Amino acid sequence: MTSPISWEANKTAEWFPALAQRSAVNTVQGTEWLPERRFEKQKNLYNQVNECLVQDVGCLEDLERDGLQFSHIYLSGYLQDRNTGYRIDMPIKKALEQSPAYQMIYSNDRVIIFEKVAYLP
């Protein structure tokens, strides 16, 4: 999950799978050629995941109930206050830090990685 930018401009989402040697459930790039309208589905999923940036973990749980499978959350970027222009943390960051279902396993000044430690039944 990265700051709310369009998928076309999101270089982190584009390159993360290759650099990390892991799959990313919200990466749109590369699905243009796949059958069964995969491209449209990935664009919709990208938008749904980005909506979770300004919500709590319930948003992620809803996506999981709808069939999204993930084990880790890579969180980078920031939001910008429209009135002051200051950078502010994404609400999902605080929600993940407070949730017993997620554990922070890495953090620096640009990236936080959470691991899911509890799964929905």
Q: Measured on Cα atoms, how large is the radius of gyration?
A: 14 Å
Overall number of structural domains: 1
Largest β sheet strand count, sense and barrel closure: 3 strands, antiparallel
Distance between the termini: 24 Å
Mean pLDDT: 88
Low-confidence stretches: none
Q: What is the number of helical segments per DSSP (H or I, 4+ residues)? A: 4
Strand order of the largest sheet: 1-5-4
List the helices and strands and how they pair.
Elements: H1 11-20, H2 38-51, H3 57-65, E1 72-76, E2 79-80, E3 87-88, H4 91-98, E4 102-107, E5 111-116
Antiparallel strand pairs: 1-5, 2-3, 4-5
Describe the structure.
The protein is of the alpha+beta class. It contains four helices and five strands, in the order H-H-H-E-E-E-H-E-E. The chain has a three-stranded antiparallel sheet with strand order 1-5-4, with helices on one face. It has a two-stranded antiparallel ribbon with strand order 2-3. A hairpin with a 6-residue loop joins strand 2 and strand 3 (87-88).
Short key terms for the protein model shown above:
121 residues, alpha+beta, three-stranded antiparallel sheet, two-stranded antiparallel ribbon, 17% strand
In short:
This protein is α+β, with helices and mostly antiparallel strands. It has 4 helices and 5 strands, in the order αααβββαββ.
